[in-house]
């Protein structure tokens, strides 16, 4: 195949999914959703062909124009476009894709800042999927998004299930926009700053971290943690979305 001016497979971060159980799993997860589908990084079309079988409007993009041309000819019923996942409009109800590992975080941040889509099914590095789903403790990015999105870890993909084989396993992550946000959208900027202050703050206990992050008296911080039902949590990473929302309400009242 001719070389793309944008680089070869490694330069483009393309580790093509060949693991059939995962291809079937992602297709089944997408099948549970409704509405038009946007596939990011379609590559040679292993997943695209399965998604096309769902019989829904499907747009597939890739940064390699040679693969776009070949897949466009092979799947005339699919809208296949040359496009960069870090810039292309995320304007479909469902976003799905095998995300290039080296741009996972920028794509996730961009996805979580857009309003058009409802559900996403993404294949990322295993540790990214695990952390975003809150397995083993939450992260700042997940906590900042949790009032508006629900994250779920849907499986691990062995490194040998990709070609070329990466150095790490992959993970299937689903993200669903909450029908009823836990925090008003109008509070998002303030809430995100609050979460950042909590994750970067100091303290030996959660009330101490909260007091330092909000400059509140320790007595008020203890009452806020108790009112949020978070007394069993020691660190910000231990808080569930409901805890974060409740703490924000307490902080906002203060």
From TrEMBL:
PROSITE patterns assigned: SAM_RNA_A_N6_MT (PS51689)
GO terms classed as biological process: methylation
Gene name of this polypeptide: erm
Keyword field contains RNA-binding: yes
Family the entry assigns: Belongs to the class I-like SAM-binding methyltransferase superfamily. rRNA adenine N(6)-methyltransferase family.
Keyword field contains NADP: no
One Gene Ontology MF term: methyltransferase activity
Name recorded for this polypeptide: 23S ribosomal RNA methyltransferase Erm
Binding-site list for S-adenosyl-L-methionine: 15, 17, 41, 62, 84, 98
InterPro entries noted in UniProt: KsgA/Erm, rRNA_Ade_methylase_Trfase_N, SAM-dependent_MTases_sf
CDD domains the UniProt entry points to: AdoMet_MTases
Pfam families reported for this sequence: RrnaAD
Keywords: Methyltransferase, RNA-binding, S-adenosyl-L-methionine, Transferase
Domain Ribosomal RNA adenine methylase transferase N-terminal intervals: 22-179
């Amino acid at each position: 195949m001719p070389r793309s001016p944008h680089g070869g497979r490694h330069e483009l971060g393309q580790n093509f999914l060949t693991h059939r159980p995962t291809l079937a799993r992602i297709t089944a997860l997408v099948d549970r959703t409704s509405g038009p589908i946007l596939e990011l990084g379609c590559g040679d079309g292993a997943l695209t062909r399965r998604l096309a079988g769902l019989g829904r409007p499907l747009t597939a993009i890739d940064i390699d124009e040679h693969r776009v041309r070949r897949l466009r000819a092979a799947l005339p019923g699919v809208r296949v476009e040359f496009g960069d996942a870090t810039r292309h409009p995320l304007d479909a109800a469902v976003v799905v894709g095998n995300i290039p590992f080296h741009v996972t975080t920028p794509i996730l941040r961009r996805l979580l800042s857009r309003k058009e889509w409802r559900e996403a099914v993404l294949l990322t590095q295993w540790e990214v999927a695990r952390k975003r789903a809150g397995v083993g403790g939450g992260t700042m990015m997940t906590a900042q998004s949790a009032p508006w999105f629900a994250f779920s870890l849907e499986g691990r993909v062995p490194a040998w299930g990709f070609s070329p084989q990466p150095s790490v396993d992959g993970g299937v992550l689903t993200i669903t926009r909450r029908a009823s946000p836990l925090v008003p959208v109008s509070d998002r900027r303030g809430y995100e700053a609050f979460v950042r202050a909590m994750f970067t703050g100091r303290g030996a206990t959660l009330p101490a971290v909260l007091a330092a992050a909000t400059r509140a008296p320790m007595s008020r911080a203890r009452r806020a943690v108790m009112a949020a039902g978070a007394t069993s949590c020691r660190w910000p990473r231990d808080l569930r979305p409901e805890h974060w929302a409740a703490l924000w309400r307490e902080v906002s009242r203060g």
